[in-house]
């Protein structure tokens, strides 16, 4: 029996139950605060997640070796470390396998397809917290640095001189990811990534169940205004998408508009920063193939929402805003052609933010 085991499991790995990192995990269950620091999840959240993904990551027992139980497989994936006395090839199989199971088990509940009622609730959050009415979400794209894929040419090579995939995200006022597109080539701009995404198609074709146009608070004279997303200079200006004015010789009203838009858009930058601080894999070059990188990134996004969904408070949001590290910004591109209707919408918001109804006391000194 011993000889057979050595053929399938290296002798240094047989003692993982007694000497591996998982022994520490058992001890941490007696210390909830340290358990959270170690896994970035509370014990309740870990157990809930395990109940969701356990059936799909449980392996069949054979006569040759004991399978790694689902609790350990989940622990290995969350830590993304090699301290559990399991083989490198085993870890390489566990991480993408469990990552996919995490995404599949969480996506429908914690990244649901947006409905009109969702848009209304999110718009209320932007109005109350960020003083930007009729705003549904902020969008941006970020680079996730990866090892150069074989035979990929320059597709993954970005303007920062690294190889990456792009995570395009739409974020609400509570730093929750609501729509994500993962896996665009690093050489892509925000505009190109948005244009090629399923979300971009739905946005262009008006299939996102936006709320009906409604007046801005205290500005009935402007008539019904569309509900909008906010983005940076790389995002094309559309009726439902606002981006800043080009930063050249701006009038005071345009500077105020840019400030107010930037203030609302910062939620997506902060969300990326929180994601990178929470899941340390974003601090390294991810050395797996593009398909597995996509699975890992999607899992961290789902876990981000899973952790925050019902326990986000104003105090926590304020604390997280103090200083948040971020992922690399996607390359900026020049101005985009815009329709007259989209230009008129931006002009209306510009006028509103400089009026008594839509202004805030500090904007004149900040803009």
UniProtKB/TrEMBL annotation:
Query: Would the keyword Coiled coil be found if you checked this record's keyword annotation?
Result: no
> Has UniProt tagged this entry with the keyword Metal-binding?
yes
Q: Which residues form a coiled coil?
A: none
Q: Which domain of life is it from?
A: Eukaryota
Mind telling me which InterPro entries this protein's record contains? HARBI1-like, HARBI1_dom
Which residue intervals define the domain DDE Tnp4 in the entry?
A: 139-305
Annotated keywords: Hydrolase, Metal-binding, Nuclease, Nucleus
Q: Which is a Gene Ontology cellular component entry for this protein?
A: nucleus
Matching Pfam families, A to Z? DDE_Tnp_4 (PF13359)
Q: Where are the transmembrane segments?
A: none
Principal location class: nucleus
Report the locations given in the UniProt record.
Nucleus
Q: Which GO terms describe its molecular function?
A: hydrolase activity; metal ion binding; nuclease activity
Named cofactor requirement(s): a divalent metal cation
PANTHER family for this protein:
PTHR22930, SIMILAR TO ENSANGP00000010363
Q: Which family does it belong to?
A: Belongs to the HARBI1 family.
Record-given protein name: DDE Tnp4 domain-containing protein
Q: What is the lineage of its organism?
A: Eukaryota, Metazoa, Chordata, Craniata, Vertebrata
């Amino acid at each position: 029996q011993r000889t057979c085991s050595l053929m399938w499991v290296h002798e240094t790995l047989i003692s993982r139950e007694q000497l591996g990192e998982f022994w520490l995990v058992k001890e941490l269950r007696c210390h909830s605060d340290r358990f959270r620091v170690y896994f970035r999840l509370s014990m309740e959240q870990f157990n809930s997640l395990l109940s969701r993904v356990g059936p799909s990551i449980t392996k069949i027992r054979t006569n040759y070796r004991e399978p790694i139980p689902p609790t350990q497989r989940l622990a290995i994936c969350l830590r993304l470390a090699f301290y559990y006395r399991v083989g490198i090839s085993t870890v390489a199989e566990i991480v993408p396998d469990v990552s996919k199971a995490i995404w599949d088990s969480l996506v429908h509940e914690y990244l649901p397809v947006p409905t009109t009622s969702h848009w209304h609730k999110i718009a209320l959050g932007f109005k109350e917290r960020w003083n930007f009415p009729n705003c549904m979400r902020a969008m941006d794209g970020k680079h996730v640095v990866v090892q150069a894929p074989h035979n990929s040419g320059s597709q993954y090579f970005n303007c920062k001189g690294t190889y990456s995939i792009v995570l395009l995200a739409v974020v609400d006022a509570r730093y929750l990811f609501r729509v994500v597109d993962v896996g665009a080539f690093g050489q892509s701009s925000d505009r190109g990534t948005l244009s090629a995404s399923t979300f971009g198609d739905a946005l262009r074709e008006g299939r996102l169940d936006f709320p009906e146009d409604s007046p801005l608070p205290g500005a009935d004279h402007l008539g019904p205004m569309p509900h909008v997303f906010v983005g940076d200079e790389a995002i094309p200006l559309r009726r439902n998408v606002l981006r800043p004015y080009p930063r050249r010789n701006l009038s005071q009203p345009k500077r105020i508009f840019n400030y107010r838009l930037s203030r609302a858009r910062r939620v997506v930058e902060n969300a990326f920063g929180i994601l990178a601080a929470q899941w340390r894999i974003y601090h390294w070059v991810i050395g797996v193939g593009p398909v597995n990188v996509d699975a890992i990134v999607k899992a961290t996004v789902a876990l981000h929402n899973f952790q925050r969904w019902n326990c986000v408070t104003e105090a926590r949001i304020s604390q997280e805003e103090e200083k948040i590290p971020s992922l690399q910004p996607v390359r900026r591109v020049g101005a985009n052609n815009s329709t007259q209707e989209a230009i008129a919408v931006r002009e209306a918001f510009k006028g509103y933010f400089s009026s008594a109804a839509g202004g805030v006391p500090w904007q004149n000194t900040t803009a």
